Amino acid sequence: MTQEIWLSGVDGDIALHLPAPDKEVLSGVHWGRVDELMTPAYWKGQCWQAERLGWHSTYRLGGDLREEVAACLLGGWGMPAELGLAAFRHLRDRGLLRAPTPVHVLEAALLEPLAVAGSWRRYRFPRQRADHLAGCLLALETLREPECDRELRDALLGLPGLGWKTASWVVRNHRASSAVAIIDVHVVRAGVVAGVFNPAWTPERNYGELEHAFLDMADAIGVRAALLDAVIWDQMRRFGDLAIEAASCAAAARTVAPAAILVARQHHGRTRGAIGRRAA
User: Fold this and answer.
1) Residues 117-141 pLDDT 10s
2) Are 23 and 44 in contact (CB under 8 A)?
């Protein structure tokens, strides 16, 4: 028995047909129900809808590689997405990303209040990020972009403040690449719940294994890895505590959290819309 999901549009109703929930999508991993949160079938359905509706059609935050590095660096570890994006735009609009810029100039700009969602916020880690960004802007003056996406990521890993996740984020955004994966806490939780990731893996120790498993999942469900990452990131951050609880449950039981528990939590108003746009 197969399962299906329907989408209504200007051209009428369109159906996506998927294998039965008990069919394997990867060795030891089942498709699961399309209407059960965070199963492989669920992510396939969400990505299908996003693609049909034209969501996540672009990933770039900057106009060139220099700006993309700045945007991802400023929005990296420990930084709320909206605050990092506000800081990037603040520096870009002042012309501070066009060429190498002294650390003290970048730090002074990052110390200024930033408008975020109608309120004024202070940027976190202004001195550290200014130092890293100054080093990146200088290094990018002589960096020659390799044609291969993975080789570009390797080159970016040599820049100040760029680890595996941030370097992958730059490459995915700049080239709409599906050759790399942005393994952050949201993707890790989703992968654990879907049964694709070993719960013991962490990005710090097992980035390669996590990326390989993620790319395998994307290939198995027939979705571009770049799109799958964007949809997972957007939804998991909206799920909030629900995502944390589901990942903890799956890690403890090494299975997908029961749909009844997740649906009950959803009906109590703990989640919002199924798909949303990532900040641009």
Assistant:
1) 899 999 999 999 999 999 999 999 9
2) no
Q: How far is CA 109 from the centre of its chain?
A: 27
The first and second tokens of residue 234, run together, are: 């957007």
| 247-252 average pLDDT score | 80
How far CA 146 is from CA of 74, 135, 170, in Å, comes to: 24, 20, 14
212-228 pLDDT, tens digit each: 999 999 999 999 999 99
C-alpha dihedral, 271 to 42 to 186 to 194, nearest 10°: 120
| Per-residue b or e along 29-58, where b marks 16 or more CB atoms closer than 10 Å to that residue's CB | bbbbbbebbbbbbbbbbbbbbbeeeebbee
d(C-alpha 181, C-alpha 176), whole Å: 11
User: For 58-83, how does the pLDDT look when each residue is reduced to its tens digit (9 = 90+)?
Assistant: 999 999 999 999 999 999 878 889 99
Q: Which residues share a beta bridge with 26?
A: 29
CA gap 31, 45 in Å, rounded: 11
pTM of the model: 0.86
What is the chain's alpha carbon radius of gyration, rounded to the nearest angstrom? 20
Token digits of residue 115? 């408008």
Pinpoint the alpha helices (H) of 75-148. 81-93, 103-110, 126-139
First to last CA, the chain: 40
Interatomic CA distance for residues 10 and 36, integer angstroms: 27
Reading the block at residue 55, the tokens are 């969501």
CA dihedral 88, 92, 96, 102 (to 10 degrees): 10
- Can you tell me the distance from the alpha carbon of 75 to that of 174, in angstroms, rounded to the nearest whole number? 15
CA–CA distance, 185 with 121 (Å, rounded to integer): 24
> In this structure, how many other beta carbons lie within 10 angstroms of the beta carbon of residue 161?
18
Helix axes 185-194, 241-253, angle to 10 degrees: 50
